[in-house]
Amino acid sequence: MNRLLSAGLAGLLTMALALPALAHTGHAGHAMFQQGLLHPLNGIDHLLAMVAVGIWAVQNGGRAVWLLPASFIAMLAGGAILGMSGVELPAVEAGIAASVAVLGLLVLLNRRVPVVAGMLLVGAFAVLHGHAHGAEMPQAADPVLYSLGFLLSTAMLHGAGIAIGLTRHIPRLLSAGRAAR
């Protein structure tokens, strides 16, 4: 099961990272989308935080499995709009670093919180990550295509975290099923 999951995740990341040959004109939109798609994958801080959101969502269980990633993505978009608009936020880089530390600790400690509190926490971190994505958008990029790219990439990273979180629970679920027989 773990090999299958690993192969699937590797395949998804390979497809996301594959750059098409742009030998013909009219591919600027694809390049803008790809720049956005690749942006979250270019920094370990973004990778770790976004995967951690997925893992932590599974650890919280129930509605949190989809509400935490959905909150992150919605607030990521809002933060990106702020960054693209030139709105300054204090301590964005420190906040992004804190998101990695805090989310990592929550995962490590398997700390569950009420769904709304989790949504607020990941949402606050997402605004900072989104601001960084928006502020670092190439000047020539189309904001919509670039944003669609990093939002899709973020959703994929959350999905990878959810998959990791689910595979960590499989042995416990299997043993509980055997005990019930």
From TrEMBL:
Top-rank taxon: Bacteria
Keyword terms: Membrane, Plasmid, Signal, Transmembrane, Transmembrane helix
Entry-linked InterPro entries: HupE_UreJ
Protein name according to UniProt: Urease accessory protein
Species the sequence originates in: Azospirillum humicireducens
One Pfam entry name: HupE_UreJ
Signal sequence, start to end: 1-23
Transmembrane segments: 39-58, 65-83, 89-108, 115-132, 144-166
